[in-house]
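User: Once you have settled down, look closely at the record that follows, taking as long as you need, and be ready to discuss the fold:
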Amino acid sequence: MTPVSTVSPSSPTCGWTWLGRVDYAAGLQLQARLAGERKEGRGEDHLLLLEHPHVYTLGRQSKAEDLLWDEAERARRGVEVHPIDRGGEITYHGPGQLVGYPILDLGGHGRDLHLYVRRLEETLIRALAGWGIAAERSPGLPGVWVGNDKIAAIGVHVSRWVSTHGFALNVDTDLAYFDGIVPCGLADRGVTSVRALTGRAPGLPEAARDVAAEFGAVFGVAMRETATV
């Protein structure tokens, strides 16, 4: 288990906001604005929690052959495609999936990229445990797993030690949309969701609140909910 800090009255604060459904391009713009402020020493660390319409995102290690549905099929199903600057390969975002974008100045969190990713994983593992799911890491494969199936993908970008992008947790996701890609380039692994495993799922606003609480505990920060950013 990743060592974590204990939240105390003197702990730094981190804002968090449940944004509901946000177009992917708008989410990128919001991340860029908040990250720019942090690089200039303004604003505060913030965890954005939201869901996106159907979209495939192509990380820096993506391969063209891992995008399986052609343009016509993607158009029929309403799926956008966005090449982006995060690490990792191709993944899917869509309704029922909780997406988290931590905009953090990692100067206050050890300046250790591997530790940062482990802490994101730990946050999600704890949240899933609260919903009755025993999830774990898989050696050498970022993300959170239940057996051979991925339940949460992680892909981050760090510039001047300020983080963008983050994680995608399948809560009540239509898993059929993963058929259009080779998720994260792993043809021999599957995907799953909270609903697929338990037959039920929390609403995304409730899931966001649970994840925000675990994020604060793992990162040793006091979470402060805000209505807007």
Observations:
- The first strand starts at residue 13 and ends at 21.
- The helical segments are 24-39, 71-77, 113-130, 194-198, 204-219.
- The chain is about 25% helix and 30% strand.
